Amino acid sequence: MAKNSVIRLNNVWKIYQMGEVQVEALKGLSFEVASGEFVAIEGPSGSGKSTAMNMVGALDYPTKGIVYLDGHDITKLSESQLATIRGRKIGFVFQQFNLLSNLSAMENVALPMMFQGISQIKRKERSKKLLESVSLGERLSHKPSELSGGQQQRVAIARALANDPEVVLADEPTGNIDSKTGRDIINLLRELNKKGKTIIMITHDHNLAKVADRIELLKDGIIIKQKRSKK
Amino acid sequence: MAKDYIRFSWKNIRQRGLRSWLTIIGIVIGISAIISLITIGQGVENAIEEQFEKLGVRNLRIIPANLQGPPSAIFTLPNDMIDKTESIRVVEYVDKVITETGILEFNNEEKSMNVIGYDVSLADKGFADIDVRAEDGRLFEKSDNGVMLIGNTVAKEKFDKEIRARNNIILEDEKFKVIGVFAETGTELDSRIYIPLENARDMFDRPDDINAMIVHVKEGIDIEDAQEIIERELLRSYDDEDFDILTPAQILEMIKDILGAVQAVLAGIATISLLVGAIGIMNAMFTSVLERTREIGVMKAIGAKNSDIAFIFLAEAGIMGSVGGLFGIVIGTSLAFTVELVADALGFPYIKIEIGFIIIIVTLIFSFIVGALSGVIPAMQAAKLKPVDALRYE
Ligand SMILES: Nc1ncnc2c1ncn2[C@@H]1O[C@H](COP(=O)(O)OP(=O)(O)O)[C@@H](O)[C@H]1O
Ligand SMILES: [Mg+2]
Q1: pLDDT given at position B336
Q2: How many contacts, defined by CB atoms under 8 Å, are there between A and B?
Q3: For chain B, what is the mean pLDDT?
Q4: Which side of chain B, N or C, has fewer Cβ within a 10 Å radius?
Q5: Domain of residue A218, CATH code
Q6: Ligand nearest to the CA of A25
Q7: Inside any domain, residue A189
Q8: Distance set, CA A146 to CA A108, A140, A142, A143, B2 (Å)
Q9: A18: Cβ below 6 Å to ligand 1?
Q10: What domain count does chain A have?
């Protein structure tokens, strides 16, 4: 394992049992992400992208194989240890934004810090700063329903950065917003990458994937091709 | 940290608005029942003990047998029992009374009243023995006829115009002259009117019987010995089904027994409503877990441990319990004070409500625990959710 690799999947299988039927969502997936990289996982619908993200983000245990996150083998950790690692090392950005509807923008951004036991004063201060950094300084106390899709996704990105994680993991981050606003979101991710964050973006859209340093092409639960982008 | 989670839970409760209120109704009812139950019960006990101290412990009460509670007009004692009792050697003297209800008319108002026919041949002896004075006018004299003594509350509060000594008043269409108003005693005497026994016999057509005797025992004789002796003597002429002799302590016991039975019924009601309340909270929490499945998934993804999720839901249930408890305390207390006021107005001054700090705290803690316990299973269910499954939930 490379010294600076944050994430490494080694022959990872994920098999879902659906009654009688077994669904093999991942079939021996292996790849590595180095610190500071911008990696896109590209593939058609049903190819196992979200399942791969669950592995990378320590949201679920693999059926077989090993997942290393920041040097820890997640298959050896308890659920609550996983929760702590997720909270500190990974920032999630979801296709459906997944903001808590009864919390304000600022409270949503502050929430991951609450689970890490950070004091309220610090949470307020930091969530305000983060929202300002995604140009939402004027929308601190707005509820998600009072924000546009693009704005909600920017709140979600601010939330992903709350605990200053190593990795930002984005699953179809532009899937629910129009293409122009989607561009802004991608640019935001690129900026974060320039500032040193490791970004893993999942998408079915090749045009979006192209902005990454590297594309892992996923099909039927396995990486079929790896491409370095030419920039 | 707990503070942050509690604030977070509080937000969620507020968010559900009316539904949260509906959820806590059961707890509100249960806790109000418990609070009014305890305070009224305690209040009656306080008042009754106070009464018995005032009424003196040197008296025995002879009442018709099997009669639970205060003398009533349905069962009576025969007149000849009076002479028999008076002739017993341990007896100093006997107050004999007829109790009836009658319509009192004064200043063009009519009110129904407890009327006591009282033996005036003893003049004010019986009153003096229990320290009752007249604050206006005088007490009975030996040959009084067609006169009336009035309880303090009756005189001052029952009619628009205060009744004073020397006023004329009409009872059951007969004219009486008020000779005096009792000083306030804080006992049932305040809400009664007294007329001479012979007047009561005529008015209510009761020539041959009375309702009760209050036997004043001679100085230096033990009250329980006296009870035994009187009972033995009376049993020569009467059946033991004809009368009961009660010491003040026994009367107190009897009232407490009745009170206990009433309290048991109320306790049952309280338990049932609390149970219903607890199930209500449990149900609301299950619904909440279901509705917020996706939220739970998100919180887990951004670092919430199973124990954090469990705590949030437990806090929610506990807070709902406490808020229910708080309203229950307010309503239960108001209920108790209302009962005291109404009872007073109805001439039953036997309730003295006191609300202790301890009972409020204990009830609050109790309602929190009931709420939190109702939340245990839903909270565990929420905590157990797998983040991936919760996130996929639509
Ligand atoms: N929890 C699950 N239970 C059963 N099958 C699942 C589950 N999650 C995903 N799958 C199946 O696994 C395959 C890959 O799904 P997914 O990772 O969501 O693909 P993608 O995100 O690329 O569309 C699909 O066939 C899907 O139906
Ligand atoms: Mg997907």
Answers
A1: 86
A2: 68
A3: 85
A4: C
A5: 3.40.50.300
A6: 1
A7: yes
A8: 14, 11, 6, 5, 30
A9: yes
A10: 1
